[in-house]
TrEMBL record:
InterPro entries: F-box-like_dom_sf (IPR036047), F-box_dom (IPR001810), LRR_dom_sf (IPR032675)
Name the record gives this protein: F-box domain-containing protein
Species lineage: Eukaryota, Fungi, Fungi incertae sedis, Mucoromycota, Glomeromycotina
Species, as recorded: Gigaspora rosea
Pfam families attached to this UniProt entry: F-box-like (PF12937)
Domain F-box intervals: 2-42
TM helices/strands, residue ranges: none
């Protein structure tokens, strides 16, 4: 049945080879597969000729204009006749990836380097206008102002006449709004107003907070936030960490107090954001990257107030104050389910306090990743206490080499035995355990479904993998960073070896 086939093939939306094979089965399957393949064409590693397919569907006047321009730069090309109007299928538009593909196409056409910029921007503008007027309805838009040299008035006109292009937009990213000095502020403000008017049902909004920006543009960004009916995720990036516009944009989040479920901040002033989020009762996920944590009275005072029903807490690339993190974890308590702390600079006493706090206050952890903890007795006690743990990532400290090999083997055997019966995923790619996979698997009773390792180049480890697979009958995938064919034939029928990128589970 067509409805069933469409549902099945839609689940292959990121599997290029599978979809391409499906398109060759029959005319019926082709009609279903091709629109899915072309929803997000710049995500796939298509050949540059993808641009030729799009250019072939330009209007007659646009084709004549472009071909005359190409000939002026000694590029002679004929656009193929196509069966489908591929532009109509577009649902994801990333201007940065679009620019990359156009440049690849120009290189394929042996375009003189001196002509790259002129032709790149010309083709991008023609394609954007074509996407808008083709009847496409976007779901995701990644707007990078560094890609364009200017915004043409006809683009605004096309958008205003074809508002269905933005009507179902769910994810919007706005980047480098103050990057390009060639932009006319009025033009950028006009585009942002169109976005404000046409995109009121966003689920996710990512804003790169401009360091220095015209107040009119900052106001437009604030209006986009305020215009949303049910914004669930916000991602704010302050690249340099000192944007004077952060307070205005952060304050606008108050309009989304009831709907917001996830906040991710990068480089932002932590206190500035936490002040606004303090009483967001429905906030469940808080991710912090490259922000400054300070053990100061103001932050501690904020954390003392009624804060949060956080289930997921992630702190990465931060030299954090452990006392602040401990205070947060205590506040989250038994509601916390997913925890990732990836940082450096915490001493033995702080590690002990951190582990003790997690054990005492967070019994419902299902995902755990704490960098530089090692296999200490206290850490193993914590793991044995987490009876709902499903996902575990180990990242050994730099001083792990100080442990004798005999002690390390003992710790590994003990650790393997205490792994909870709920554990399905174990990442030891950056752990000393990776060198002793056979010890881990020979003593492990956890029903692992996924195992992430650095490499599989030892017969003893390969044998242990097969024996574990036979014994537990749960292990499906082994993600390997250095994937080679040494043991792939031996593994066949027991486990599937894949590249670690395809198997890693994030927080």
């Amino acid at each position: 049945m067509p409805e069933l086939m469409e549902n099945i093939l839609n689940n292959l939306d990121k599997e290029f080879n599978s979809l391409y094979s499906c398109a060759l089965v029959s005319r019926h399957w082709c009609k279903i597969s091709i629109p899915i393949l072309w929803q997000d064409p710049f995500y796939f590693d298509y050949k540059p000729l993808i641009i030729s397919e799009y250019l072939s569907s330009l209007g007659k006047d646009e084709k004549i204009y472009l071909q005359s321009m190409l000939k002026a730069f000694e590029i002679n090309t004929q656009f193929p006749q196509t069966i489908f109007d591929y532009a109509n299928f577009l649902k994801v538009l990333d201007l940065y990836l679009l620019k990359s593909k156009v440049q690849d196409w120009l290189r394929f056409q042996r375009c003189p380097k001196a002509s790259y910029n002129i032709l790149t921007f010309t083709i991008i503008k023609l394609l954007i206008k074509k996407f808008i007027e083709s009847g496409a309805i976007l779901q995701e838009l990644y707007l990078d102002f560094s890609v364009l040299d200017e915004i043409q008035p006809e683009i605004f006109c096309s958008l205003e006449q074809n508002m269905q292009f933005l009507s179902r937009l769910q994810d919007l990213s706005i980047k480098s709004i103050s990057f390009n000095s060639n932009f006319n502020i009025e033009s950028v403000a006009t585009l942002l107003k169109i976005l404000e008017k046409g995109t009121t049902k966003l689920n996710t909004l990512k804003i790169e907070v401009p360091v220095f920006c015209d107040p009119q543009l900052v106001h437009s960004l604030v209006c986009i936030i305020n215009s949303q009916e049910q914004l669930k995720q916000i991602y704010m990036v302050d690249t340099y960490g000192f944007s004077e516009n952060l307070p205005s944009i952060t304050s606008a989040l108050k309009s989304q107090k009831q709907s917001l479920r996830e906040v991710r901040i990068e480089g932002c002033n932590f206190i500035e954001v936490i002040k606004v989020l303090m009483n967001f009762e429905n906030l469940e996920t808080f991710r912090v990257r490259n922000c400054e944590f300070s053990n100061n009275r103001e932050l501690l005072k904020i954390l003392e107030k009624n804060f949060y029903k956080i289930k997921t807490f992630e702190v990465t690339d931060v030299e954090f104050d452990t006392l602040i993190i401990v205070r947060c974890i205590k506040k989250f308590g038994s509601l916390l389910q997913r925890l990732k702390l990836e940082s450096i600079g915490i001493d033995f006493v702080e590690k002990s306090l951190l582990l003790k706090t997690i054990k005492s206050f967070c019994p419902n952890i299902t995902y755990l990743y704490i960098r530089d903890i090692g296999l200490s007795a206290q850490f193993q006690e914590l793991i044995g206490n987490l009876q709902k743990l499903q996902f575990l990532t180990l990242y050994d400290p730099a001083d792990v080499d100080e442990i004798t090999e005999e002690e390390l083997r003992r710790q590994m055997m003990q650790f393997a035995r205490i792994l909870p019966s709920t554990l399905q995923y174990l990442d030891i790619m950056r752990s000393q355990l990776n060198s002793y996979i056979y010890i881990l698997l020979n003593h492990c009773n956890a029903p692992l479904k996924k195992l992430i390792i650095s490499q599989l180049n030892d017969e003893k480890n390969a044998k242990a993998l097969i024996e574990f697979s036979i014994r537990k009958r749960t292990l499906s995938y082994v993600g390997v960073r250095d994937l080679n064919n040494t043991f792939q034939k031996e593994m066949k029928g027991y486990v599937t070896l894949v590249s670690f990128e395809d198997a890693v589970v994030g927080c």
